[in-house]
Write a structure and sequence with these properties.
Blueprint lengths: L6 E6 L17 H9 L2 E8 L8 E4 L3 H4 L4 E5 L7 E13 L2 E8 L1 H4 L49 E7 L11 E3 L2 E3 L2 E5 L2 H13 L6 E8 H11 L7 H18 L8 H9 L4 E3 L2 E5 L5 E3 L4 E4 L2 E4 L4
Helix pairs in contact: 6-7
């Protein structure tokens, strides 16, 4: 039985897909999928001879020069069904002045997009629709490498310091059960020292009494911040208190700079834009932010003068 040639072929350009399958596109239904790829169409060929899915080659009535910028195609054999087959263009070869040979490979993901079901799987990375800063709220655990700084900045708060030794025992080396610090429970006791000698003596005594393993963390905070914190909460701030303080006041500074308040339209977008325009002089240093959200935070260097810690001024 003779069947008149009626295959439809569409040659597309600028389709963001290739046969590495590094990226693909999800569609909710076949109509959306078809309309998307048709929007990328450069040439349409109708009433063509039957195209075999696994043959991987077709001849088109078009010069090779016209097809070199095309990277994708789709075809349909109406005599045998309405299914569209999607394929990557692998190469275009000159046959004649108005004829070219196109080699292709079927895009399995798009061709059979609605014929398979993805079972429970591990998602390595998922892009949001817009991929704007702030769209992806789940950390991707991407390794950022070591912190790098260019300039040394001095915060007005980095003058005098206190040394805090977080341990399972108190200043008398007696076992301690911890307590509430700024409304957050910690199983550690925070021992506060004004000089490095007193802190070192405490650590040496703990070592002599075989209790050094009970020291979990040692950090420093500005005296001004520590005093204000103790006055407000009747507790010694932990190593995250300064970070939390700076985070809240950074948002406050951005909101004031942008002239917005919670509940305003486009609050998030304006806060993000303002972050690149502000400089925050916080308890943990002077901070700025780049357009991609990366912080530029000046390093803080502490110098000990006669056992008293103070900020390094470059002299």
């Amino acid at each position: 039985m003779y069947i008149a040639p009626n295959t439809n072929i569409r040659v597309l350009k600028n389709v963001p897909l290739d046969n590495t399958y590094r990226n693909t596109i999800y569609f909710g239904n076949a109509t959306n999928q078809l309309n998307y790829f048709l929007s990328k169409q450069k040439y349409a060929f109708n009433n063509q001879t039957y195209q075999r899915v696994n043959n991987g080659v077709m001849t088109l009535n078009r010069s090779a020069d016209d097809l070199y910028d095309c990277n994708y195609l789709m075809f349909q054999n109406p005599s045998y069904g309405n299914k569209w087959f999607y394929a990557f263009i692998l190469s275009v070869e000159y046959i004649g002045n108005t004829t070219a040979e196109v080699r292709f490979e079927i895009d399995i993901m798009q061709t059979w997009h609605f014929d398979y079901m993805v079972n429970m799987s591990f998602v390595e990375r998922e892009m949001s629709i817009t991929d704007k800063v702030g769209d992806n709220l789940v950390p991707e655990n991407l390794e950022l490498g070591e912190y790098v700084y260019k300039d040394l900045g001095i915060s007005s708060l980095f003058t005098l310091y206190q040394i805090i030794v977080a341990a399972t025992f108190d200043e008398n080396l007696e076992d301690a059960t911890g307590g509430m610090y700024g409304g957050v429970y910690s199983g550690l006791h925070y021992n506060v020292f004004s000089t490095w000698q007193s802190a070192s003596t405490f650590i040496a005594d703990a070592t002599e009494q075989n209790k050094a393993d009970g020291i979990v963390s040692i950090f420093m905070l500005p005296v001004a911040f520590t005093a204000d914190y103790q006055a407000a909460y009747n507790a010694t701030p932990d190593q995250f208190a300064g970070d939390g303080y700076d985070a809240i006041y950074t948002i406050k500074a951005a909101a004031e700079h942008a002239g917005v308040k919670p509940g305003d339209k486009d609050f998030n977008e304006k806060i993000i834009a303002a972050m690149t325009e502000i400089t925050v002089d916080g308890t943990t240093g002077t901070m700025q932010w780049s357009a991609d959200g990366a912080p530029n935070k000046a390093a803080a260097v502490v110098v000990l003068h006669d056992g008293v810690p103070s900020a390094y001024t470059g002299k």
